[in-house]
Design goal:
mainly alpha, six-stranded parallel beta sheet, three-stranded mixed beta sheet, 12 strands, about 65% helix, flat, DNA binding, WH-like_DNA-bd_sf, transcription, transcription regulation
C-alpha cells in the first residue's frame, strides 16, 4: 500500500489586470502551483480521488469550476453540491440523477448504482472515467459517500471533493487517502501579494497597495470576503478610480446587507452558545482565553477554534481573537446595543485593560465608547496616541475629542492635528494647532516640551518656517515673564527654555534650508542637551541629531549623516512623543540618507522595517513606498518603470501625505512624463504648481530641480537648464554639495556640459557610491579615452545608474582608441548588454542605438548648421526659432553624441550619420 500523500500549497492568485479597457468578468482564480498539481493528480493512473481542504471562502468552489473547464473536453464532468439541509437524506445530493426512480428503487443501493451508471454512460466523453466534482463534501450523507466510493473502486469515476477542515473529509471517502489512492491539497488564505493581484484582477486596473492591503487585512486573506469587500466598496462609492488608479476614499468601512449575508453564511454552522461566545470575542478582542472560557464556556470556545473562526492573539499572550477583522466589524455592527452593554458589564468587571497591549487597549476603549461607558482620560489619551500612530485616524479623532481633563488637552490637540493631517485635512490640522497656547498653569518642563513638540508637529504637517519660528518667540516671551525661573525654579529650567527655542529655530531652518546658521546652533544643542531635566534630554538630542543628519546629507556627507540618525533612533523617547511625529521624523531622515548615497536597497528595507516595527503595516504600501521606488527608478534611468509608480504614489499622497512627499512625487512624475513626451506631463505640472511649500528644504530643492529639468525636456528652450544652474548656485551658497550635484547631474543629462569641471568637483566632494560614480563619469567626459569611459561605465553599473553606464560603455566602444585591446571592447559590450537588459532594451538593435543614439530631424537640422559654422543666433534666424531653443537642442545633441562642445561636433556627427546609414 502506498503512503498517504499531502500537499500544503497556498492558494495563489495570478489574475493579471493587464491594460484592458473594459472591466473583465469576475476572474477565475489561477491557483499557481496548486492547480497543476491537482490536474496531474487527477490524470495519474494510481490516483482515484483528490481532496481539497480549506476554510469556507478560500475559493474551493471557484477551483472546482476551473477544474471543470480544464477537463470538460476530456472526460464527463459531473458537479455535485453538498447541502446542510440534505445531510440526513440518503442520496439527497444525487437526486438530479435519480429523478426517474420510484421511492422503492431509491432505497435500493443496486438501483441507485445502476441509475448512476446509466447517467455516466449517457454523458461519456472519451474512454476515461468520469470526473465527479463534489463541493461542500462535508455535508454528504453516509449513503452518498459509500456510493461515490463504490463508483471510484469500480473504475467508473474519479472524485475531487472540497470540504472544510472540520468536520473534514467524510470517513468513507477518507479511507481512500489512508489506502494511498488519493491526494490531499490544503487551501491557505491569500498572501498580501496574492490579495493585491486579486484586487487588480477584480477591478481591471492599477490598485494602490495600501488599498489592496486594507481589503486583504480586513478579509484575513479570505478570498470570498475580499471579493465581497471590493465589490461592496465599489458600489458604495468609497472605492473610486482616479487617473487610472483605484483607491479607497473613506477610512471607515461601509458594510452592506450583502456582506452581512456572506458572513452569516460562513457562521451558520456554529451553535447558539458558540455564537454568543463569538459575539463576546468580537466585542472584546483580543481577550484572555482563560477569562472567555469562564464567561462563555470551554465547549463554546473549543467549537470556535475547531471551526477556524478564532485564533490565538499572538504577542506571546494567551489571548483569542477572530481570524479576520471583517467578522468582527460585521458582528459588532449587528449585535444590539443593549446586548453589547450587557456583555460589556459582564466582562469588564472580570478583566484588566492591558495598557501595554495595543490591541487590547484600543478594543476596550472603543467598546466602552460604543456602550457609553466612562473611560478615564488617561486611557483615552493612550489609546488616541496609539490610534494616530497606527493611522487609525477616525478612531483617534473620536478618542481625542472625548478628552475633558485640562491636563491632557495639549496632547489631545496634537492628536487631533495629526489625525486631521493623516486624513489629508490640512486646514483642520492647522486649526487644531492654532488652538494651542502656552499654559501658564503648567510646569516649566511641560510648557517647554509642549512647545517643542507642537513645533515639530507644525514642521511635520508642512507649515511655514515663519509659523514655526513664531512658536519659539512665544516660548521666549513666556520665559521672560516668569520671574520664578531665576529663583524658585532650577537653572536647568531656565536653560531648557533657551535651548527649546533654539531647537524650534532649527526646525524652521530645516524648512527654509538655512544650513549655515544651523551648524553652530546644532552643536550647541547637542552639547547642552544633557543638562536639561527628564524627558526633555532625549527629545532635544533626538531632534538635534536628526536635524544635523538632514543638514549633513544636504552638505554631501550622507554616510556620516546616517550614523547620526541611527544614534537618534536608539534614544528612548517617552511614549506620548509618538503622536508628535518624532519616530517618523527620525526614520524619514534615515531613508533620505540612504537615497542620497545611493543605497537603494537599504532605503527600501529601512522603510519596510520601520513600519513593521511601529505597527503601521498598511503604511508600508502607502505613498512613501511609491515615491521611494519611483525615485530609485529615475536614478537608475528606468523612467518607464518610474512613471506608473509615481502616478500611483500621487493618488495615495493626494489624500494622505504624512511625510510631505507630494511635491517631490509630482516633480519626478512631471520629469518622467516630459521625457517620454506624454500628455500627462501637463497634469503633473499643475499638481506641482498647486502643491506649495510643504516640505523640508532638502526635499523641496530636489523637487524644484526635477521640475526645472522637466520644463527643459518639454520646451527645449534653455530656460530649464538656466534654472538648474541657478539651483546649483543657490545650493553652493549653503555648501549643500548634494543638492548642487543633483541640479548639475540633471543639467548634464539634458546635454549641458558648460559646467563639467564644477560637476566633477562637486561629485568628488559628495559621499556615496552614486556621487563617486558620477565623478568618474564626469572625468571621462572631460578627458575622453576608451579606458576612462570603460572605468566610468563599470562604476556607474555598480552604482546601478544603468542609463549613464550604458552611455559610458557606448562611448568606450565609439572612442577612437577602442581598438587598442580586444579585451576592452569585449568588457564594454558585455557591460552595455547588461545595462540594456536592466533598462528593458535587451535586443541587439536597441544596444546599437545605445552606442549611436538617434537624433531627431530638428536636432539634425541644428547640428548640420552648427557644423557649417553658424552661430546660435544665425541658426535661430535660419530656422525661425529662439536662441534658447537652439541652445537646448545643442545641449541634448552633445549628450546623445557623448561630446562636450562644438569643437567635437563635426566628427561625432559624421560617425552618427555613418552608423545610421549603415544600420
Amino acid at each position: 500500500m502506498k503512503e498517504p500523500r499531502s500537499h500544503d500549497n497556498a492558494a495563489a492568485v495570478h489574475a493579471h489586470a493587464g491594460e484592458r479597457a473594459t472591466r473583465p468578468p469576475e476572474p477565475w482564480l489561477d491557483y499557481g502551483h496548486l492547480l497543476p498539481g491537482i490536474t496531474a493528480a487527477i490524470r495519474a493512473d494510481d490516483c482515484s480521488a483528490v481532496f481539497i481542504v480549506g476554510d469556507s471562502g478560500l475559493g474551493a468552489s471557484s477551483l472546482l469550476a476551473q477544474l471543470g473547464s480544464v477537463f470538460g473536453g476530456e472526460v464527463a464532468v459531473v458537479p455535485i453540491h453538498g447541502s446542510p439541509s440534505l445531510t440526513a437524506v440518503p442520496y439527497g445530493v444525487l437526486a438530479p440523477f435519480l429523478a426517474h426512480l420510484s421511492l422503492a428503487d431509491i432505497s435500493s443501493r443496486v438501483a441507485v448504482l445502476r441509475s448512476l451508471w446509466d447517467h455516466l454512460e449517457g454523458i461519456r466523453v472519451g474512454t476515461g472515467p468520469a470526473l465527479l466534482l463534489v463541493d461542500d463534501a462535508h455535508y454528504l450523507d453516509d449513503a452518498t459517500c459509500a456510493m461515490l466510493t463504490e463508483l471510484v473502486q469500480a473504475g467508473w469515476a474519479k472524485v475531487v471533493a472540497a470540504c472544510v477542515p472540520r468536520p473534514g473529509v467524510p470517513a468513507p471517502l477518507l479511507r481512500m487517502w489512508h489506502e494511498g489512492t488519493a491526494e490531499w491539497f490544503d487551501l491557505e488564505p491569500l498572501t498580501a501579494e496574492q490579495g493585491h493581484e486579486l484586487c487588480e484582477a477584480l477591478l481591471g486596473g492599477i490598485v494602490l497597495n495600501s488599498t489592496s492591503h486594507g481589503f486583504w487585512t480586513e478579509a484575513g486573506g479570505n478570498t470570498l470576503l475580499l471579493k465581497t469587500l471590493v465589490r461592496e466598496a465599489e458600489s458604495s462609492g468609497t472605492l473610486v478610480q482616479r487617473h487610472g488608479v483605484w483607491l479607497k476614499t473613506a477610512a471607515t468601512p461601509v458594510h452592506t446587507v450583502k456582506l452581512e449575508a456572506v458572513v452569516k453564511l460562513q457562521l451558520m454552522r456554529i451553535s447558539a452558545a458558540g455564537r454568543e461566545a463569538l459575539n463576546l470575542i468580537a466585542l472584546a478582542e483580543p481577550v484572555d482565553e482563560t477569562l472567555i472560557n469562564v464567561v462563555a464556556g470551554e465547549a463554546a470556545v473549543q467549537e470556535l477554534l475547531d471551526q477556524h473562526l478564532i485564533k490565538p492573539g499572538g504577542n506571546g499572550l494567551p489571548n483569542l481573537r477572530l481570524v479576520n477583522p471583517v467578522y468582527g466589524e460585521v458582528l459588532r455592527s449587528i449585535v444590539p446595543a443593549a446586548q453589547s452593554l450587557q456583555l460589556h458589564r459582564q466582562l469588564i468587571s472580570r478583566m484588566d485593560v492591558l495598557e501595554d497591549n495595543p490591541d487590547s487597549l484600543l478594543r476596550m476603549v472603543t467598546w466602552s465608547l460604543d456602550c457609553g461607558a466612562d473611560v478615564p482620560d488617561r486611557l483615552l489619551i493612550r489609546a488616541a496616541v496609539l490610534s494616530a500612530r497606527l493611522l487609525q485616524s477616525e478612531t483617534a479623532l473620536r478618542m481625542a475629542s472625548a478628552v475633558r481633563d485640562v491636563q491632557w488637552q495639549s496632547i489631545a490637540q496634537a492628536v487631533l492635528a495629526r489625525s486631521y493631517f493623516n486624513l489629508g485635512r490640512r486646514d483642520e490640522a492647522a486649526a487644531a494647532l492654532a488652538q494651542e497656547t502656552v499654559d501658564g498653569d503648567a510646569g516649566p518642563s511641560q510648557v517647554v516640551s509642549s512647545s517643542v513638540l507642537r513645533a515639530a508637529t507644525r514642521a511635520a504637517v508642512g507649515q511655514s518656517a515663519s509659523l514655526i519660528r513664531a512658536e519659539a518667540e512665544i516660548l521666549r516671551e513666556w520665559g521672560e515673564q516668569q520671574p520664578g525661573l531665576d529663583g524658585q525654579r532650577t537653572p536647568a529650567a531656565q536653560a531648557a527654555v533657551t535651548l527649546a527655542a533654539t531647537v524650534i529655530g532649527l526646525l524652521a531652518g530645516s524648512v527654509d534650508g538655512d544650513y549655515k546658521r544651523m551648524g553652530p546652533e546644532l552643536e550647541r544643542v547637542l552639547l547642552q542637551s544633557g543638562t536639561v531635566e527628564g524627558s526633555l534630554a532625549p527629545l532635544f538630542r533626538g531632534l538635534a541629531l536628526a536635524l544635523k543628519a538632514e543638514m549633513m546629507c544636504a552638505l554631501g556627507r550622507g554616510r556620516q549623516a546616517r550614523l547620526l540618525v541611527l544614534e537618534a533612533a536608539a534614544l528612548a523617547q517617552p511614549q506620548e512623543n509618538d503622536v508628535f511625529f518624532i519616530p517618523e521624523f527620525i526614520s524619514a531622515r534615515l531613508v533620505i540618507c540612504a537615497l542620497a548615497v545611493g543605497d537603494w536597497a537599504d532605503a527600501q528595507n529601512l522603510l519596510d522595517r520601520y513600519y513593521e516595527s511601529s505597527g503601521v503595516s498598511m503604511a508600508t504600501y502607502g505613498g512613501a513606498a511609491y515615491v521611494v521606488a519611483g525615485y530609485i527608478a529615475i536614478r537608475q534611468g528606468k523612467t518607464g518603470d518610474a512613471l506608473p509608480l509615481l502616478t500611483a504614489g500621487l493618488e495615495a499622497l493626494r489624500d494622505s501625505d504624512p511625510q510631505n512627499l507630494f511635491g517631490l512625487c509630482a516633480a519626478m512624475a512631471f520629469y518622467a512624463a516630459a521625457g517620454a513626451g506624454l500628455p500627462e506631463a501637463e497634469r503633473f505640472r499643475a499638481d506641482f504648481k498647486a502643491w506649495g511649500q510643504h516640505s523640508t528644504h532638502l526635499l523641496a530643492a530636489q523637487a524644484n530641480s526635477f521640475f526645472d529639468a522637466g520644463l527643459e525636456l518639454l520646451n527645449a528652450d534653455g530656460s530649464g537648464v538656466e534654472a538648474l544652474h541657478q539651483n546649483a548656485d543657490d545650493a553652493a551658497k549653503e555648501n549643500a554639495t548634494y543638492l548642487e550635484l543633483h541640479a548639475l547631474e540633471l543639467a548634464l543629462g539634458l546635454g549641458d556640459t558648460s559646467r563639467l569641471d564644477r560637476f566633477c568637483e562637486t561629485a568628488a566632494a559628495t559621499e556615496g557610491e552614486w556621487a563617486q560614480s558620477l565623478a568618474e563619469y564626469g572625468r571621462a567626459l572631460k578627458f575622453g579615452g576608451a579606458a576612462r569611459y570603460l572605468s566610468a561605465g563599470e562604476k556607474l553599473q555598480a552604482a546601478t545608474a544603468y542609463h549613464l553606464a550604458a552611455k559610458a560603455y557606448g562611448l568606450a566602444l565609439a572612442a577612437p582608441d577602442r581598438g587598442q585591446t580586444k579585451e576592452l571592447s569585449a568588457v564594454a559590450r558585455a557591460g552595455l548588454a547588461h545595462c540594456n537588459e536592466e533598462l528593458g532594451q535587451g535586443s541587439e538593435e536597441t544596444q546599437n542605438e545605445s552606442v549611436v543614439p538617434k537624433l531627431t530631424k530638428r536636432e539634425w537640422d541644428i547640428v548640420n548648421l552648427a557644423v557649417q559654422g553658424l552661430s546660435d543666433r544665425q541658426i535661430a534666424d535660419t530656422l525661425l526659432i529662439s536662441v534658447r531653443t537652439v541652445e537646448g537642442h545643442l545641449y541634448r545633441c552633445y549628450s546623445k553624441l557623448g561630446i562636450t562642445g562644438r569643437d567635437e561636433l563635426a566628427g561625432a556627427a559624421a560617425v552618427a550619420q555613418g552608423a545610421s546609414s549603415t544600420g
